[in-house]
């Protein structure tokens, strides 16, 4: 996706589905991504990491314990072992049989449907070839227009920007930054994920002046109007249908 397309157009922000539509389907699965697309999301945040045998799979936690029928660290399991696990039954019986997807599968499925915000879960940071493998896969599939790589490890973002200067990147952080726009420029980011408790209109304005888009989580529907008035570019939730409805209501009441 060209970086400029991350910006909202005429008060119509992007709707981003957190780990897919994780409020209505098991997170980081094709079921959650399909539900997000059907709900009207334009972006979907996913988490990726490497298996023991070097495959990129979708998984948020270091271990598979919480979201599958298995146990153990992702980095210690082969793709074959992961694929044997049920990744949906924990969420609801209708999702039994859902499998842990590979990034390759998800990139193929998402083409023309959703732009993927791919969070690189480097455990530990900078010591695994996840970044290299992800860049190679995106190059192989010609998927650069449908992917925004991101993460909390800002030196890694700078390295990706050096290697692929035209790719948009997403900068994430969990603390209040004194200068989000300056940090985004330093990391080479085109999109900054702002923690909802730290969102200020001045930060959004300064990000826009730097040519950087701003995303935050929509925690309650009634907050949409305020965030839209500040010029937010993307609103994220595990319930993208709620976000779509909240944006529609805010624009109707304006």
Helix and strand topology:
Blueprint: E1 14-18, H1 30-39, E2 43-50, E3 56-58, H2 79-83, H3 103-110, E4 115-120, H4 130-141, E5 147-151, H5 154-163, E6 169-172, H6 180-187, E7 191-194, H7 201-209, E8 213-217, H8 224-229, E9 234-237, H9 240-253
Helix pairs in contact: 3-4, 6-7
Rg over CA atoms, rounded to whole Å, is: 18 Å
* CATH architecture group name: Alpha-Beta Barrel
Mean pLDDT: 94
Low-confidence stretches: none
For the record, what CATH class applies?
A: Alpha Beta
Cα separation of the termini:
30 Å
How would you classify the helix and strand content by structural class? alpha/beta
> Which band does the percent of strand residues land in?
15-25%
Structure, explained:
One of its GO terms (molecular function) is phosphoric diester hydrolase activity. This is Glycerophosphodiester phosphodiesterase. Residues 1-21 are annotated as: Disordered. Helix 8 (224-229) links the parallel strand 8 (213-217) and strand 9 (234-237). It is built from nine helices and nine strands. The chain is 32% helix and 17% strand.
